[in-house]
Amino acid sequence: MNSCDTTPLLPYDEALLQLTGAITPVARIVETELRQALGSVLARSIESEIDVPGCAMSAMDGYAVNTADLAAEGLTRLPLSQRIPAGGVAAALAAGSAARIFTGAPVPQGADAVIMQEQVEVDEQGIRFESRPSGGSNIRPAGNDIRRGTTILEKGCRLRAQDIGLAASVGLNSLPVFEAVKVGMFFTGDELVEPGQALAPGKIYDSNRYTLHGLLASMGCEIVDLGLVGDTLEATVEAMSRACAEADLVVTCGGVSVGEEDYVRAAIERLGELRMWRIGIKPGKPLAYGQIEGTAFMGLPGNPVSVFATFCLFVVPVIQVMQGRAWRKPVSLPVVADFDWPTPDSRREFLRARLVRQGSDEAVVQIYPNQDSGVLTSTVWADGFVEIAENKTVRAGDLVSYLPFAQFFG
User: What's residue 257's pLDDT?
Assistant: First the structure.
């Protein structure tokens, strides 16, 4: 590889379009029990086969009445004809009577209102009250929440707790979901040492493995972790071949630059096709994308911040498309800058940043003072990126584009 590689930098937006356009969803569908479905992606839209609620129900504890039996004004007295608990069966309301009813109980045929128990006095003859309810008061009609035939969950949504509860509310005990995307990962660098081991001179602990594992797990991926790989072309080729045989997507950290011992790019070119390399962003310029026997491959840079940034910007949309989700570029928020960025760069820059509220004023965005791509502390301190367009500068008080980290993982 030539250490003076002059391959033109691919602009950020063009790289995103190429990546998301090249990926196809994983089509394997499995039926999953509701309690195991959290975080999975729904494989087809779901329609309700029932009304929810299935019949008119009382919205509170009180007394079911027919408003036609009530005095137009003044005191009304009615005898009690039945008691209806939640889950009970109601008989038709006897003319000129009231029914004791509880929240969630079925409203008897012939009743068209429920009077709150706080508005009623009870004695041995029945109930008496003065406030005359209007028809429909305190009654939830059949289908008030969901009508039969209504689509309640759309294909491609990543299932949240409330989605699973909604499926249960219409009687489903399982859902069809796309099988988890299998992501193989391995890491290169003879300088890396596993946490917990003694740190010899010249060595560093491997944080990238744990950052990447956590990011993939947060997206619901099945992880195939091949661990550390020696800095040789043969070892890299062997690991890449094995990972591609086991996974839908392979992600590596390190080895994609132009150094004499950066072998990932060479391994891609030996086994398959390198389709993208050198992106016009900072941090994260040396990012590789390719295909090896139908398996997508993404090679991330080795610097810890670059791993985090390129995962958010590029790996997240790739995985979302593979999961069958409708990927949309995260929406930036216009926020006032509380910093100066006086030196323009020809690349799109993504600065680690966080929102800060100063007194009663609107929030402003600050950046971490050290934006070096090796400063992993900045990703913990920050809650988002400030995106600075190519060849732009910023002065305190300018509006800048802020991308919360939560936008990438929603």
Answer: 60
* Cα torsion through 117, 120, 123, 127, rounded to 10: -100
DSSP H stretches of helix in 8-152: 12-22
pLDDT score at 261 = 53
Superfamily assignment of 333-402 in CATH?
MoeA, C-terminal, domain IV (2.40.340.10)
The rounded mean pLDDT for the chain is: 92
Architecture field, domain 57-140:
Beta Complex (2.170)
Quick check: 1 pLDDT over 50?
Answer: no
328: how many CB neighbours lie within 10 A of its CB? 10
Q: How many CB atoms lie within 10 A of CB 173?
A: 10
Read off the tokens for 205.
């602990």
Is omega for the bond preceding 53 within 30 degrees of 0, making it cis?
yes
| CATH number given to 12-28+179-322 | 3.40.980.10
Strand ordering across the sheet containing 288-292: 222-229, 182-188, 249-253, 295-300, 288-292, 273-276
**Whole-number Å distance between alpha carbons of 256 and 301:** 6
Residue 73: predicted pLDDT: 79
The structural domains of the chain, with segments of one domain joined by +, span 12-28+179-322, 30-51+145-178, 57-140, 333-402
* Confidence at residue 244, expressed as pLDDT on a 0 to 100 scale: 93
Architecture of domain 30-51+145-178: Alpha-Beta Complex (3.90)
Predicted confidence (pLDDT) per residue in 268-304, tens digit: 889 998 888 889 999 988 888 999 988 999 999 889 9
Average pLDDT over residues 78-104: 96
Q: Which amino acid is at 339?
A: F
With tokens 């299998």, the residue in question is 182
Is 90 exceeded by the pLDDT of residue 406?
yes
Residue located via tokens 């499926």: 167
